[in-house]
Amino acid sequence: MNELTKRILIAVPAAALLLWLTWLGGLPFKALFALITAITLWEVHRMFNELKTSDYIILSVLLASGIWLASDYVFGAYFLIPFILLVLSLILLTGRKRGTAENPLFSTLFNGVYAPLGFLMIAGIRFPELDIAGFWLILSFYLMIWGNDVFAYFGGKNFGKHPMAPNISPKKTWEGFFSGFVGAVAGFSIAYFIADDFPLPYWVCAPAVLIVSIFGPLGDITASSLKRLAGVKDSSALLPGHGGFFDRFDSMILSAPFMYALYYYLLYSGI
Questions:
Q1: Closest to 33 (Cα-Cα) out of 41, 217, 76, 8
Q2: Which of 12, 5, 44, 30 lies closest to 244 in space, CA to CA?
Q3: What pLDDT score was predicted for residue 10?
Q4: pLDDT tens, 140-197?
Q5: pLDDT of the residue at 156
Q6: Rounded CA gap, 260 and 124, in Å?
Q7: Low-confidence residues of the chain, pLDDT below 70?
Q8: How far, in whole angstroms, is CA 98 from its chain's centroid?
């Protein structure tokens, strides 16, 4: 069985399950991302374990659990969350040569906060108080992420000449990066026009495309940086052909808090 066949056999049922649970919303949907959070904690711990010093996994789990248990308070500070994740991401990227990522306190903070906060904010984009309208909002996020990934891949493969981060992710190019914007527009447009009644006007959501197209690739590069430090190709082998959950959701983790903040502002600011 070749690699492409493996990817398709995993991707199709996984996407169907994700969309079904997203449609259901409520506890099943939130439980799905709580489970993914737990698995990702284990994956990131394994990668940090390959470095000179690992995270304190018990503290990482306690941090993550506290974030999820205090979710009402976390969502109340939605304007701070994106910048917390961005700072952690940039520390990992810029601190690679100085050994910051090998500091057990940073490793613990990163593992206990970065992915857990990101996944919680993904769950938040479903906006359970909006019922079906919340489904269309998070579907637009999914489709923008997927569209960005697909267009960036083919744009980079066919036109890529200028690498973005040659020392971290050599295959990523600026041509692929800008192609991803087109995919994000296409993804949002599909979600908007198939929705029975999308809860926001089309044009006010334009910043969503910028969020996905900028912070999605940065999240991907952050994950690639950690994997390169750990000397591994994938975060795990739980998803044949795809790697691990951290690999599959890396773009969403960093962009979700910004997306939640944008949608929250647009929904409740009276625009």
A1: 41
A2: 44
A3: 76
A4: 999 999 999 999 988 888 886 888 877 777 788 898 899 999 999 999 999 999 998 8
A5: 82
A6: 7
A7: 1-6, 96-101, 160, 270-271
A8: 26
The closest of 202, 200, 89, 72 to 124, measured between CA atoms, is 72
